Amino acid sequence: xxxxxxxxxxxxxxxxxxxxxxxxxxxxxxxxxxxxxxxxxxxxxxxxxxxxxxxxxxxxxxxxxxxxxxxxxxxxxxxxxxxxxxxxxxxxxxxxxxxxxxxxxxxxxxxxxxxxxxxxxxxxxxxxxxxxxxxxxxxxxxxxxxxxxxxxxxxxxxxxxxxxxxxxxxxxxxxxxxxxxxxxxxxxxxxxxxxxxxxxxxxxxxxxxxxxxxxxxxxxxxxxxxxxxxxxxxxxxxxxxxxxxxxxxxxxxxxxxxxxxxxxxxxxxxxxxxxxxxxxxxxxxxxxxxxxxxxxxxxxxxxxxxxxxxxxxxxxxxxxxxxxxxxxxxxxxxxxxxxxxxxxxxxxxxxxxxxxxxxxxxxxxxxxxxxxxxxxxx
Length: 378
What we know:
The protein contains 15 helices and 14 strands. It has helices at 17-29, 65-86, 96-108, 121-124, 128-141, 153-163, 177-184, 209-216, 232-241, 258-261, 278-285, 299-303, 331-343, 345-359, 364-375; strands at 5-10, 34-39, 53-56, 90-94, 112-117, 147-150, 168-170, 196-200, 222-226, 248-252, 266-269, 290-293, 318-319, 324-326.
């Protein structure tokens, strides 16, 4: 009897939260199913099980926004040819561009289209012509999918209320907690000097690293920033202007960020918006106390799961069950939380003690069953 085929389409496997989820899914599913990965771009950063069959749409990278839009039908045609050739009956896609291509290909060849939205579109696509185009595409295309999956309750409600997506469920991201713990024990070639804050994320405006750099300048503490992106030069310039080269370090992308996380004293997160920030769960798995902005959506679901998920802080900090929440874009409240973490050992210890307990709620073994129920339904 033929094994069921699991087919995942994603832009690439460069470093990122959605990409890590795809790796975790495929590396687990390949033990029970025939797994295929379809990439728009060929980049692979993470380690993928060699049994997963990789197919490429061979799209050029770094196209302009309009060119990317105009190329969608061509990529949908390429995908439809693969679906026909390999007799795929369903394709699950991650990230908006892959989602558009998956849905458009269904016009050419019928298959079950399961799409994954990983960020809150209302906020992610708030500005500019590209933002407008993406919002229009989501409104037109997403309701046509067989099923839309989001990675947080807040994200799901945004799609329901603002984009008329009705066939929708949410599944939190899944994590290989044992692997994270194992990798976190590895040494790093970097000397820790004093109390150290750490953060992980793409260097783009949505992550608001500038807020962290500004906040840390008055403390006798260091800040490690792990990640790469378009704002790297601008952030380095800002660090130079504030004379913070001896305390703020742009460490670039790391294949094993967990070894750095485990050596720091506190994880700090400054995003203006999110879908479901993987790094918060990964920091919990490394036993770190956490400070995070209360952005929509994800941090509150992770750190204050019994609270009103729709609530958002405005002008004060909150000592949530699994971390400290602060209002977005508020440097004074972020500094208040950071100061408390530096000086209150009992507060740090309290959050450290609870961290791994909360991380275990997102173990692969728990979350994979929810994916399996959907992907393997006859």
